[in-house]
Amino acid sequence: MRTGSENGLLSALLLGIMSLPFVGLHAQNVNVLTWHYDNARDGLNRSETVLTQANVNPQSFGKVGFFSTDGVVDAQPLHVLIDIAGTPHNALFAATENDSVYAFDEQSGDVLWKTSLLKAGEVPSDDRSCDSNAPEIGVTSTPVIDLSQGPNGAIYVVAMSKNSSGSYFQRLNALDPTTGKQLFGGPVTIAATYPGSSKNGIDGTLTFSAEQYTERAALLEWNGAIYTTWASHCDHSPYNGWIIAYSASTLRQTAVLNLTPNGGAGGIWMSDAGPAATSTGILFLDGNGTFDTTLDSNGFPDHQDFGNGFLQLELGSTGKLQVEDYYATDTTVQQSDSDIDLGSGGVVLFPNFLDSSGNVRMLAAGAGKDGNIYIVNRSNMGKYHPNGGSIYQVVSNALPNGEYGAPAFFNDKLYFGGHSDNLKAFFVSDAKVSSVPVSRSANTFGYPGTTPSISANGAANGIVWAVSHSSPSVLYAYNAEALSQQLYDSNESGSRDQFGNASGFIAPMIANGRVYVGTTAGVAVFGLLAK
Questions:
Q1: 100, 140, 429, 526: least CB-packed within 10 angstroms?
Q2: What is the pLDDT of residue 263?
Q3: Radius of gyration of the chain (CA)
């Protein structure tokens, strides 16, 4: 049985979906302000009143536009109803690897504004000898929007660049969503130090180096701060796992945490998914890196090295960011040594469930390269035990080729699209995830698999949307209750709905009867066809 959920509160009150009425636009306008809709990262737009299981088919639904950009759109587009120059617009915001941010009119595709995040004499970064974001690196991570900041709200974007002298920069920008202009004296250059004996430091201090890191995971706003999380370029050493936070209202740095201060590696990338958050903590999967198997009296690594783990952070009593709880597999060291780490996947927070004994369970799920789905109890994640058996639940070999994306959650079902695997739905009952999927798609998704998103009108008309990374890429729609029932795919009508190649690890975004897919040349737009 499911209880009233703090995740629902997060969805309604925090960064996820906010419905705002406005005459002349759709009857219900949905703001999409963060990656996968909300800080639970459930991938669910529960206020979609236009698209239904009946009208999403090749006869009624298809590609209705394409918004061209100056670079690859790796970041999930965001969507806001906003007044620009005295006129209300449903605005679609897209950021590119060419360090540009666009505001498009949702209906016409007109560019409402475009802003370059490059300073004079700069260009986007080269690919740093890593093909993950070739040929250039600008904006990779999904921005986050806070409509309560500044005069009209603020869009927070991390951008990488370099100058003619070969110096690299990572900057946090805050843009006015009505004009694209910088707010709060921004941008700020991201810089940090942290104490530690890692060989990557000097004289007991680690220093963040802009050229060594990439901001892949989506931005998170939590407790009034913007959290950035950092990974390497293709595991090129030296690097460590950094989390660096800035005030949403001033861009002043508020927190720094290094996850491997006395070791190495431990980057955060999660195939571009975003860290999840509750009212009290941040949860994410960390990549391969040093983990100290010698524990202190509280069961934590004795040198505070947390590589390759399922981590939960909190702000301590002094306001310092710290690891509050964690789970590490009994083979965590061997997994890191073999690059079979948990950090390739994202996480999702479940609604609260009652278990078979009537106890409330606050759960989160994630998966990585080893093919297992890990379900943790957020109140007691399990820590490390050399003989295993400490975690709440493991669904073994559920994703046999590994997970390079993130799950979604809807109507007591957990959805995963693993590498070279079917899209699968696992049922959650009595606070346990089924050991086998209750439905799956007929088709499979090659590398990297797919990150599903879901549209629904409350609990009705659930549609699971997924993108393949074939060439050309394909947008699929499935009945959320039975994935074997495919409603639509963009190749069914020949060239009519084809849209080129989807970018990296993109997740489709659904708002106001439209489906948006980031591609290597812009944003493909799908919706109901004109009659």
A1: 429
A2: 98
A3: 22
pLDDT at residue 497, as a whole number: 98
Which of 185, 186, 184, 191 lies closest to 211 in space, CA to CA?
191
Question: Tens digits of per-residue pLDDT, 259-308?
Answer: 999 999 999 999 999 999 999 999 999 999 999 999 999 999 999 999 99
Per DSSP, the residues of 368-391 read -TTS-EEEEETTB--B--TT---S
Q: What CA–CA distance (Å, rounded) separates 2 from 8? A: 12
| CB-based burial label for 94 (10 Å; 0-12, 13-18, 19+) | buried
User: Quick count: other Cβ atoms within 10 Å of Cβ 343?
Assistant: 30
**In the numeric block, which tokens belong to residue 394?**
């493991």
What is the three-state SS of 258-322?
ECCCCCCECCCCHHHCCCEECCCCEEEECCCECECCCECCCCCECCCCECCCEEEEEECCCCCEE
Q: What CATH number is given to the structural domain containing 320?
A: 2.140.10.10
> What amino acid occupies position 122?
E
Q: Cis (ω within 30 of 0) for the bond into 238?
A: yes
Tell me, yes or no, whether 100 lies in a domain: yes
For 121-163, what is each residue's pLDDT tens digit? 999 999 999 998 989 999 999 999 999 999 999 999 999 999 9
Alpha-carbon distance of 223 to 311, in angstroms, equals 18
Residue 1 placed within a domain: no
Distance between CA atoms of 12 and 19, rounded to whole angstroms? 9
Cβ-defined contacts of 494-499 (< 8 Å, 24+): 496/62, 496/63, 497/62, 497/63, 497/526, 498/63, 498/472, 499/63, 499/66, 499/472, 499/473, 499/475, 499/524
Report the pLDDT averaged over residues 372-390.
Answer: 94
Q: How many CB atoms lie within 10 A of CB 302?
A: 12
What tokens appear for 477 in the block?
Answer: 């729609």
pLDDT at 428 over 50: yes
Count of domains observed in the chain: 1
